[in-house]
Specification:
Layout: E1 2-7, H1 13-18, E2 21-28, E3 31-38, H2 39-49, E4 55-59, E5 62-74, E6 79-87, E7 94-103, H3 107-110, E8 114-117, E9 121-126, E10 135-138, E11 147-149, E12 162-163, E13 170-175, H4 177-186, E14 195-197
């Protein structure tokens, strides 16, 4: 995936957004470059790859391999307001959230149970060139009462990857219909997230 960016100066973010550009920053511990990108192009790319795939971001002729580290969202309009791109180095592991793709028709679901998906991603530390786009999790063999945990998908990840989640963390289960219905009724309606991606750390530059 490729995106083009332009360097920008400080200020004028509202006008920048009105012109269809999205303010962003490209950073790592040695780099901090304020840029702007075409908002529609970013939206298309982000919907396709999320935060777990590398992007070749061209800034004034120089190409950086980056990950989308954080997207600040307008809560009301659900539109991106600012993007943090983390510029990776090929010889240094990065922390990524790899999407889980559940495939197959569970035996327990065909018997009347319901599939309860509890996690849709797994967190790993791995070299940039080894980042998987997603991990397929086959639920076909699950009967009512069965579940899969992080430990059950370790063999589907690159052997060099370090799994950062608790191995006993449940990913998906098949539950009886009544249990599923009770959990759905008890679950409170959550507020829409304002940030997509990881919280900023000491290396993140944030919005100019």
């Amino acid at each position: 995936m490729k995106l083009a960016a332009e360097k920008r100066g400080k200020g004028g973010l509202s006008q920048l957004r009105r012109s269809g550009r999205l303010p962003a920053v490209v950073y790592n511990k040695d780099l901090n470059v304020p840029v702007s990108i075409d908002a529609r192009a970013f939206d298309k790319a982000f919907r396709a790859i999320g935060t777990s795939s590398l992007i070749d971001l061209e800034v004034d002729g120089e190409v950086h391999s980056v990950l989308v580290k954080q997207v600040q969202m307008d809560k009301r309009r659900r539109e991106p307001m600012h993007v943090d791109f983390y510029a990776v180095k090929g010889d240094q592991p990065v922390t990524v959230h790899v999407p889980l793709e559940y495939v197959g028709s569970a035996v327990g679901v065909r018997a009347g149970g319901q599939l309860d998906v509890q996690r849709r991603e797994v967190t790993i530390s791995v070299l940039p060139r080894l980042i998987p786009n997603h991990v397929e999790v086959d639920v076909s063999a699950l009967e009512v009462g069965d579940s899969l945990h992080v430990r059950d998908i370790v063999d589907k990840l690159p052997s060099e990857a370090q799994v950062l989640d608790d191995l006993d963390l449940a990913l998906v289960a098949v539950v009886p219909p009544r249990v599923a219905a009770e959990e759905a009724e008890a679950a409170p309606e959550g507020a829409e997230p304002e940030v997509v991606g990881e919280e900023e750390d000491e290396e993140s530059a944030g919005e100019e």
